[in-house]
């Protein structure tokens, strides 16, 4: 999958400019510009921020079909909180959730 083309497609679907993506993702304008002008593939953390702005997960980003699930505001908030956690914290939360089943 071409990551940059996928970002462009998601931006086009939402009618977003580079500026809007920058504002929604919390990434600098230069980071977004580098992705488009220099064809720089974003790092995973940058891609997580971009996906968060779009309201999708990394898994949804890499899904080949065009169907994506829109997250509600509570799910988006949880996703934003999740991205900020360390790997150890994510593992602990995941284990807690598994125990709650």
Describe this structure in words.
The protein is an all-alpha fold. It has 7 helices and no strands. The radius of gyration is 15 Å and the shape is globular.
* Rg over CA atoms: 15 Å
Order of helices and strands: HHHHHHH
- List the uncertain runs: none
Q: Please give the count of helices.
A: 7
β-strand amount: under 5%
What is the straight-line distance between the termini? 35 Å
Average of pLDDT: 88
Approximate shape: globular
Give the arrangement of secondary structure elements.
Layout: H1 3-14, H2 18-25, H3 29-37, H4 44-54, H5 58-61, H6 73-84, H7 87-99
Helix pairs in contact: 2-3, 2-4, 4-6
Short description:
The protein is 68% helix and 0% strand.
Which key features would you list for this structure?
globular, mainly alpha, 101 residues, 7 helices
